[in-house]
Write a structure and sequence with these properties.
Blueprint lengths: L1 H13 L8 E2 L6 E4 L9 E6 L11 E7 L18 E4 L2 E6 L1 H5 L3 H6 L3 E7 L4 E2 L3 E3 L14 E4 L9 E6 L12 E7 L4 E3 L6 H7 L2 E4 L2 E6 L1 H4 L10 E8 L4 E2 L3 E4 L10 E5 L8 E7 L7 E8 L2 E8 L4 E7 H4 L8 E8 L4 E8 L6
Parallel strand pairs: 1-8
Antiparallel strand pairs: 2-3, 3-6, 4-7, 5-6, 7-9, 10-11, 11-15, 12-13, 12-16, 14-15, 16-17, 16-18, 19-20, 20-23, 21-22, 21-24, 24-25
Length: about 350
């Protein structure tokens, strides 16, 4: 708890004093890394989902990180190129680093720090995310767990990374291995990636990373690794480990896939269900796609055209149009035409809405 409180104070004190005058774009969403688990002296790619923020897909973004150290200190108003993120798509950005090199810290110093605390920002610092912390998974317990295989996550999915740890000390015949390879497939060998020791590119692709002292790791994204076609449903990942040129093998292993749960479908509507030209027209859309943060409307009411927009996030965008004032000089309307698009120019609704006739 003391370290946590110290970190929060650090977040408030170490970030430049003028930061409070800047535009805060919202909270950083889901964060992940590839490899899923990694040592501090291993190269890793961090991923940031910013679909819930007001950052635009076309913006150049940078990381400003002050724990375990502050590599870009003094450059808040002009971020260095080495701190620049890479745009991946669907409002996800990535950042490549080797923590020990980037922070100029030893693994022990990083492990003893408060963690990876940062903001994401534009180059000049006029826009910034809320303070965030990149999660790190400590897998050191595997070294003493007496487990042959451990996977992160335990139930992988087709398009997300998985790290598979292997303790060769527990595999008979693996002593003195010069290399270890994975012979594997999806869905009970339906899609295979065989270990073919006579093909150099396959040798390299199937080779596990040597963590030292008989421990190894394989990092992969199943869809890419097995070249799975679009729409392929992953049920399991089956594999065995191979010593050198088939000098030894483990028993077959299996990882069962996590159930894919698609996001809920978008829901759009108007309210109330019956309106007159002396009402407020409500417009809403829930479960928006990543990157959709605006509803842009055009209402045609006789010769009158009303336009505007509402902002929001993935969960919901909603707002009201004041027909009372907008249509006060347009008499005897029986309907209005409403066109609604999102900020990606996709038509959400194109319809006519009847208006109730009020008693005079």
């Amino acid at each position: 708890m003391k370290k946590f409180l110290y970190t929060i104070l650090l977040a408030l004190l170490m970030v430049p004093n003028f930061i409070q005058a800047q535009e805060t774009t919202g909270a950083v969403g889901a964060m992940s890394s590839f490899p899923v688990v990694y040592k501090y002296d291993e190269q890793v790619t961090w991923y940031f989902d910013l679909s819930g923020t007001t950052f635009a897909e076309t913006e150049d973004l940078y990381i400003w990180i002050w724990s375990p150290s502050e590599p870009d200190a003094g450059n808040w108003e002009n971020s260095s190129d080495f701190a620049k993120l890479t745009y991946v798509g669907n409002k996800v950005w990535s950042f490549n680093l080797t923590p020990t090199a980037y922070f100029s810290k030893t693994p022990a110093e990083i492990a003893a720090s408060a963690g990876f605390w940062f903001r994401l920002k534009n180059k000049t610092g006029s826009k910034q995310s809320e303070v965030a912390n990149m999660p790190y998974t400590d897998f050191s317990s595997f070294y003493t767990a007496n487990e042959l295989i451990r996977a992160y996550p335990t139930k992988p999915t087709l398009d997300k990374g998985v790290s598979i740890l292997f303790n060769a000390n527990l595999a008979p015949g693996f002593a003195g291995a010069t290399s270890v390879h994975m012979h594997s497939g999806l869905n009970d060998w339906d899609l295979k990636q065989e270990y073919q020791s006579w093909l150099p590119d396959i040798v390299e692709k199937t080779k596990l990373k040597d963590l030292g002292n008989g421990f190894y790791k394989m990092d992969l994204v199943p869809k890419q690794y097995y070249n799975a076609p679009d729409g392929y449903e992953m049920k399991n990942l089956v594999f065995l480990m191979v010593k050198d040129d088939w000098a030894g093998t483990t028993p077959d292993q299996v990882l069962y896939a996590g159930a894919y749960v698609p996001p809920p479908a978008p829901v759009f509507g108007y309210f109330p269900l019956q309106i007159s030209q002396k009402d407020f027209l409500g417009i809403y859309r829930k479960n928006n796609e990543p990157g959709v943060n605006k509803l842009i409307y055009t209402i045609t009411a006789g010769s009158k055209v009303i336009s505007g927009e509402f902002t929001g996030g993935v969960a919901e965008i909603k707002g009201f149009v004041n027909l009372v004032s907008e249509l006060k000089d347009v008499p005897n309307l029986s309907e209005i035409h409403v066109l609604v698009k999102d900020n990606k120019d996709k038509t959400i609704s194109d319809t006519s809405i009847p208006l109730k006739t009020l008693d005079k």
